Amino acid sequence: MSTKSTSKGSQPISSFLLRKPKVRLISLLTLPMTWIVGVYIVSLFLLLITAFWNVDPFTSRVRPGFTLENFIMIFTVPAYIATSIRTLFIALSVTAICVLLAVPLGIYMAKIANPRLRNFLAVAITLPLWAGYLVKIIAMRLVFTEEGFFNWFMAPFGIRGPGFSIPIVILTLTYLWFPYMALPVYTAIRQIPPNLFDASSDMGAKGFTTVYRVVIPLIVPAIIAGSVFTFSLSLGDYLAARFTGGATQMIGSIIAANINLNPPVAAAYSMIPIAFVVIYLMVARRTGSLERM
Q1: Is residue 34 exposed (0-12), middle (13-18) or buried (19+ Cβ within 10 Å)?
Q2: Sign of the C-alpha dihedral, residues 180, 181, 182, 184?
Q3: pLDDT higher for 57 or 287?
Q4: Whole-number Å distance between alpha carbons of 191 and 120
Q5: Which CATH superfamily is domain 73-292 in?
Q6: pTM, rounded to two decimals
Q7: Structural domain boundaries of the chain?
Q8: SS (H, E, C) 196-212
Q9: pLDDT by residue (tens digit) across 41-62?
Q10: Which pLDDT belongs to residue 99?
């Protein structure tokens, strides 16, 4: 009897949800929307409000108020401007290198490699994701330190590494975020019908022409999807610059340095990478790639 009463008691709820699709949709979206709006968006809004506050020069305490001095500072101080340009250059370089590596690798894995080699390459691509973020950065630091593996290996050829500098930061970030580009590109290339390659070959197109005129246009949405990760994650990173960049500073480096000394300046400077990402998404949207994702 208890089983029957339980089933009868549960029928009205299921029947009600079945008759009310809008209520069912709201019940499904309540928790994720609470997280997105209540935590993520509200946090960004509070960060923006903090950017207009100031620090008391006598007590060093943050005082609520409204001032544009923090934004004027980040757009007029040469060090802040140079760091913003440097960070943008690094993020774009990382994204470009990831694309240049992911496209030929994806073509080889999807259309040429045998299943065993394809599985091995898939594991090799995702292998960096298995290790911790800080562990991977320390590994790159150990490789390119003055007495590290790179200098030891290249010493017989009279070649030495560039030391901790911007190129090593770009290489480190490429190593960190490459899987986010390689996996969507590989998946997109795998879905391209083989007869398109055959048709391109029958029409006399060489390998590079086929890649440029057939493959690239079809995988642009996948490239855009991967670039959103590589670009935004590189913009917000600062540990790579700290451990493998030597004196190189990125936007995150200045934010981390000011988070305790001058939180309003840190909050104002945090708007720069957000603005870069928004502009990047707007440019990508104008290409029509986001609609095809």
Answers
A1: exposed
A2: positive
A3: 57
A4: 20
A5: MetI-like (1.10.3720.10)
A6: 0.83
A7: 2-50, 73-292
A8: HHHHHHHCCCCHHHHHH
A9: 888 888 888 889 888 777 778 8
A10: 94
